[in-house]
Amino acid sequence: MNSRYSPWRLAILLPCALAACASPQSRTRDALLKAGLSHDVAECMADELVDNLSIAQLQRLSALGKGEGRGVKHLLRRIRDLNDPQIISVTASAAASCAMGLPR
């Protein structure tokens, strides 16, 4: 079979294509989960962060999920060390509103 879209080719390429399509929300949520936040809070915060931060800022935040310590307090402490006022403001606001279940 000499088809450009053979089943074997699709079986190999489809997972690769789907992995590349991970949304900023899902990558941010996953980083927050790795940092020790609950699924509900991480999901809520990811939406807020993606809406209010640049891709470069989101990448800096994602790197924090790989560090030591877990939970909101520890995450906010590490975010403060990034020395980016917008990241600090948006993340603290999102953490507070999402932890309290306030509407966004």
Q: What do these coordinates show?
A:
The protein is mostly helical. The protein has one domain. Helices cover 71% and strands 0% of the residues. Helix 2 crosses helix 3, helix 2 packs parallel to helix 4 and helix 5 packs antiparallel against helix 6. It is elongated, with a radius of gyration of 17 Å.
Protein traits:
single chain, 104 residues, mainly alpha, 6 helices, elongated
Number of domains: 1
Uncertain ranges: none
User: Secondary-structure element order, as H and E?
Assistant: HHHHHH
Approximate strand percentage:
under 5%
Class computed from helices, strands and strand pairing: mainly alpha
Task: Give the SSE layout.
Elements lengths: L6 H14 L3 H11 L4 H14 L2 H10 L7 H9 L4 H16 L4
In short:
This protein has 104 residues and is mainly α.
